[in-house]
Specification:
single chain, about 190 residues, alpha/beta, Double Stranded RNA Binding Domain, Arc Repressor Mutant, subunit A, 2 domains, 4-stranded mixed β-sheet, 3-stranded parallel β-sheet, 7 helices
Length: about 190
């Protein structure tokens, strides 16, 4: 049975409007390729590069609850802020971020990462030192590699100890593009 597109859209919008979803997501285009953007009631919970929607829905349901549905309206604010960022009109995001499904160590790494300002870069070791674990540069790298909300929580701003571009879940080409957009310089 096929549901008419208008009925399907009305169902999705109603479910989102009545807070019946654990996660709402939508797909969007960006200058660095297609993105899946997802949000919970607490805030933005995922930005995925080159998404496989089925795999992402499965992952989101394991982390946040089984009521995951594609619904554009709940992610409109995130999409707007991302567009402004890519247009060079936004240097800080005002979006609430939901990192509640992450382990405590990763939450601490991502919290400190958010302090690296637009247009600046830091190192894995520098970030490890600032969270009080100076010997944990590799662990910091692992935490950043699993960052569920790249761009908004700017893991692209972290480089190797020599200033080289290393490690980025979205690929080094995307990391370079994001840093070029920001005009990144070492802290």
């Amino acid at each position: 049975m096929t549901v008419p597109a208008k009925t399907d859209l009305a169902f999705r919008e109603r479910a989102a409007a009545e807070a019946l979803l654990d996660v709402a997501y939508d797909l969007t285009d960006s200058p660095i390729g297609p993105l899946l953007v997802a949000t919970t009631e607490r805030g933005l919970c995922e930005i995925a590069f080159d998404p496989d929607p089925e795999a992402e829905v499965e992952r989101l349901s394991r982390l946040h609850g089984v009521r995951v549905l594609r619904a554009a309206r709940p992610v409109d604010e995130a999409r707007r802020e991302l567009d402004e960022y890519f247009e060079g009109r936004r240097h800080e995001f005002d979006l609430p971020v939901d990192l509640s499904a992450l382990p405590a160590f990763q939450q601490s790494v991502l919290a400190e990462l958010q302090r690296v300002p637009y247009g600046r870069v830091d190192t894995y070791g520098g970030l490890a030192t600032r969270i009080g674990k100076p010997k944990a540069a590799r662990a910091v790298g692992g935490a950043l590699n699993r960052n569920p909300v790249p761009i908004v929580v700017p893991c692209h701003r972290i480089v190797g100890s020599t200033g080289s571009l290393v490690g980025y879940a979205g690929g080094l080409e995307r990391k370079q593009l994001l840093l070029s957009l920001e005009g990144g310089t070492l802290v």
